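hey so u asked for the seq, here:
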Amino acid sequence: MEGMMMNMYGLEMKKRVMVVVDESSHSKHAMMWALTHLTNNGDLLTLLHIIPPPNSNTVSSSSASPYLATSLGSLCKVSKPEVEIEAVVIQGPKLGTVTSQVKKLEVSVLVLGLKRPSPFINCLCGMSSTDAFVEECINRVECLTIGVRKQSRGVGGYLISTRWQKNFWLLA
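ran it, structure tokens below
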């Protein structure tokens, strides 16, 4: 049985937490939040880095680096050595890749970074493409999906969004 391990008291659940990472600061904040708030001894943290398909107009040299997930995984291992870290790099469409990997790896919790909204851009364009992707994942993916946004330095804490609660302030 995937995700289960025995201890002397019976069955104990072992979580697989997946974080979608890229070069942005908001994805790194989500990764560190997941590492410190969701994972326990023996859990598995999977860092999923999705490289856009070659014909995509959004390819940049930094987002196409296959080494990003590995270097972030090393940072996680140093920060919390009792958690198993796995780096996965896949080329493909973002939503389809996330959905298929969640099913394939039997993920318990998916964590995504939310951008800090820019009032000027929100007035002109509405929701950013990153936030629209996070909303789509929250509504479609078949596991607990959490959007995480780090609050500003003066306020502290995180804003958490799930299917059931939007922009819940977590002071931690």
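The chain has five helices and nine strands. The first strand starts at residue 4 and ends at 7.
lmk if thats what u needed
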